[in-house]
Design a protein that fits this description.
- The protein is built from 6 helices and 2 strands; from the N terminus they run H-H-E-E-H-H-H-H.
- Helix content is 58%, strand content 3%.
- The protein is mostly helical.
- It folds into 2 domains: 3-112, Multidrug-efflux Transporter Regulator, Chain: A, Domain 2 (Orthogonal Bundle), CATH 1.10.1660.10; 114-147, no CATH class.
- It has a two-stranded antiparallel ribbon with strand order 1-2.
- The termini are far apart.
Length: 147
């Protein structure tokens, strides 16, 4: 199929498809005598795999090493190890995000608990002090010294 039809059927821009070809993710592209690209039907599957893998957090470099040049030669063990590694990466990221979210919720609760008669700047200093950020509360040019 030609690139226009492939773009329409895949939902991707023709420029993106050409980019994937340029960086080596699409390897089964044939060129006719007039220079037009011709894509085999399985290219739709490859594009779907690329899109889904990117949505799952795979970089194009990772995909380049993952996608085989010949679909009949996909290395089962290498594929599984790559997928397991990505899952571990995602789980670690989820833990970091959960910790960040908890910290932000804590800050938000402290900010929201501002007494009605307290100025915002004073509340900010109070929140930073409660969070152990007292040094940031000092006026510019003033610092505690240990001497």
């Amino acid at each position: 199929m030609k690139i226009g039809e492939l773009a329409k059927r895949s939902g991707l821009a023709a420029s993106r498809i050409r980019f994937y070809e340029k960086i080596g993710l699409l390897k089964t592209v044939k060129r006719s005598a007039n220079g037009y690209r011709s894509y085999p039907p399985e290219t739709l599957l490859v594009l779907e795999l690329i899109t889904n893998a990117q949505d799952a957090g795979f970089s194009l470099d990772e995909l380049s090493g993952l996608l085989p040049s010949d679909w009949g030669q996909w290395e089962h063990g290498a594929l599984l190890e790559t997928l397991k590694t990505k899952i571990r990466d995602i789980e670690a990221m989820q833990e970091r995000l959960a910790a960040s979210k908890a910290k932000l919720l804590e800050v938000m609760a402290k900010v929201e608990s501002k007494p009605d008669d307290m100025a915002c700047a004073d509340n900010a200093r109070r929140v930073m002090s409660e969070m152990g950020l007292g040094e940031l509360n000092k006026a510019p040019g003033t610092r505690d010294t240990d001497s």
